Amino acid sequence: MKKHGWIGKWTFRHIGRDGELLDEWDQFNALADEGEEHMLDVTLRGATKTNNFYLGLYNDTPAETDGLTDLTGEASGNGYSRQTIEGNNTGWPTLAKDSGDYMASSKTVTFTASGGSIGPVTYAVLATSSDNTGKLIAYVALSQSRTLADGESLQCSMTVKLSEAA
C-alpha cells in the first residue's frame, strides 16, 4: 500500500543590513490539524476558498493540534507584520511536476527590522488570516532562535508537493 502526503519545504535567507547573506537553510514543515481540515473542506466539500495566506513569526513551539489562537509570542513592532501570500498564481507563481509529482512554489516574502530588532523568533507559521481569526495551516522551526537586528531581513518561500511514497 502506498502512502500519500503533503510535503511542505520552506527556504529561509537571513540577510544582513548591508545585503550580505548571513545564513541560508531549508526546513520541512508540519501540517496542523486545522490545515488538514481546511484543505479537505475546501477541496472536497466546497467550503469557501482562502483568498490569501499569511506568514508570521513566533517565539513559540506549535503542536499539530494547536489552532492559531493557541499560539503566543508573535513578533511585534519595528516593522514586523504578517506577510501576505496570495491564494492565486501571484502568491504561488509556479506549478510544475517535480520527480513525477506536482509541486507549487510560493513567492518570496521578506520580514525587515526597522527602527529596532524583531525577535527572538523560533518558528514561522502559515495561516489563513492576518490576525488570529483564521486557521493555522502549517508551521516550521527555524534553524535556531533568530533576532533580526535593525536593517536585517529574513526572506522566506515555500514549496508544497503532493506526493506518494511506497
Write up what this structure looks like.
It is a single chain. The protein has about 170 residues and is mainly β. The protein has one domain. It has one helix and eleven strands. The chain has one helix at about 35-45, and strands at about 5-15, 20-30, 30, 50-60, 85, 95-100, 100-105, 110, 120-125, 135-150, 155-165. The strands form two sheets. Strands 1, 2, 6, 7, 8 and 11 form a six-stranded antiparallel β-sheet that branches. Strands 3-10-9-4-5 form a five-stranded antiparallel β-sheet. A hairpin with an 8-residue loop joins strand 9 and strand 10. The longest helix is centred in the N-terminal third of the chain and has 13 residues, at about 35-45. The protein is globular and about 45 Å long. The termini are close together.
- As residue ranges, the low-confidence spans are none
* Envelope shape: globular
What radius of gyration results from the CA coordinates? Answer: 16 Å
Q: How many domains, in number, for the residues?
A: 1
Q: Mean pLDDT score, rounded?
A: 91
Give the fraction of residues assigned to helices. under 10%
Which structural class do you get from the secondary structure elements?
A: mainly beta
- Termini separation: 7 Å
Biggest beta sheet attributes: 6 strands, antiparallel
